[in-house]
Amino acid sequence: MKYYLAIDIGASSGRHIIGYMDGGELKTEEMYRFPNGMDSVDGSLVWDVDRLFNEVVKGIAECFKKYPKIESLSIDTWGVDYVILRDDEEVRPVYAYRDARTEAVVEEVHSLIPFKTLYEHTGIQFQKFNSIYQLYADKLAGRLDGATDFLMIPEYLMYRLTGNKVKEFTNATTTGMVNAATLRYDRKIWSCLGLPIALDANLAAPGTFVGKLKSDIAKCVGGELDVVLCATHDTASAVEAIDMPENAPYISSGTWSLLGVKTPMALTDDKSRDSNYSNEGGVNYNRYQKNITGMWIVQNLRSELCSESSYDDIVKLARSSEFEEVFDVNDDMFTAPESMKSAIDAYFFGHGKKLPECDADYFKAAYNSLGYCYGEAISDMEENTGKTYNEIYIVGGGAKNKYLNEITEKYTGKTVVALPIEATAVGNLKIQIKR
Hints:
The protein has helices spanning 49-66, 106-112, 115-122, 131-140, 153-162, 169-172, 187-193, 215-221, 234-240, 270-274, 296-305, 311-320, 340-350, 359-385, 402-412, 423-434, and strands at residues 4-9, 13-22, 25-35, 39-41, 44-47, 72-76, 82-86, 89-90, 94-95, 149-152, 209-212, 226-228, 250-253, 256-263, 278-281, 286-293, 391-395, 415-419. The chain is α+β, with helices and mostly antiparallel strands and 435 residues long.
C-alpha cells in the first residue's frame, strides 16, 4: 500500500494528513496538528515562517514514526503572501495579508496601471491585500533592492525542505499579476510597476516534482520521500476534492468563504469586474470565484464575547435571536478590527440600522450576513455566466454548520450539498496520487 502526506496550513491551524487508497476509496488519517496565527510585531502583522517550518518538520517526523515509507508530500496554504529572497537570504519580516501597509499604495498602483486594465489582463478581483499591492509596498520600502526571487508561502516551505525553488501556477494567480490568457506572469504589469524583472519566472503545474528532502532534513524526520506540487493555493486543492455529478457552484467555507464555479476560461468582462469576481487557477480549468469574508467574523466575536463557548453553543445562541439586520461582511472595517463587536455597531449605526442588543443578536447578524452575501454573489455569478444552478456544494469547516447551511439555502435559493470533509487535504492527496 502506498502512503502520501498532505500538509494543509490555514491562517489559524495546520495539519499533517496521511492518505492511502483502500479498495478504491481514499482513506485519511490526521497525524499532527498545530496552531497558526499572525503575530503583531512593531505595529505590523507578520508570519513567523521559522515557526511554521519547524512545525512542518515536526509533523513529518511524527508521520514517519507510524508510516516509515511515504511516497511523497505536498504543502498547501492560503494565497497572496510570500517570502522575498536575496539569493538564499530571506527578507524579514514576512508580512501577513491583513497588515495595513498596502492601504497607502493602492491609489498609486492604479495611477500607474488602472484597475480596469489590470482586470482585463488578470481577471483578479480587487482586494487591497493582493500580492501586487504588497510587492509595490515592498518596492517603496526598499525591500526589493537586490531581490532575486520571491516564493509564495508553500513554495518557500518546500524550498526549505528540498533546496529547490519551484513556482506553482494556482497560487501564482492569487498575486494579481498572472495574465489570464497566457497563464504566465504579465510582463506589462511588472514593467509598469518597475518591479525587478528577476522576479519573473515560469509557473509549474500541480503534480510537478520539486525534489527530495535535503539530507539534514531527511535525517531529522527519519525518512526520505518526494516533495511534489499539489494545487498549493488551498482553495484550488479544496475544489479538486469535490465530487459533483454536474458542474455546480461551490463554497470552500472557513476563515474565508471562497464561492465560485469552474469555467473553461477566465471571464474578464466589465460585469465580472464590477461584481468583483476573480479568475484563479485550477487544475486544467478556471475558478470563477469570489472571496467573501467567512467565519473570521464569528471567530472574532467568539473571542471577544464568549471565548469559552463552543461553536454549537454559539449556534444555539444565534437561533434564539430574532434580530434580522444584515451587514456587508466584505466591508474593509471587518478586515482586522480591534473589536469586531464595535465594528458591527459602527456599520449598523452608519447605515441607520437597528443595533444588536445581546450576544445572540451579534451572532445571528454574522450568520445572516454571510448567507446574504452568498445570495448576492450567486445572483451575480448566474447573471455573469448566463447559467442557472440548482445546487451549491459546501466543503471545509463551515460545511459542518447545519445552521449556516440552512441560512445559505434561504438566501441563495439553492439546495446545499454539504461535504464535511478535510477538502483541501483530500484535494492535495488526490493530486499526489494521480501524478
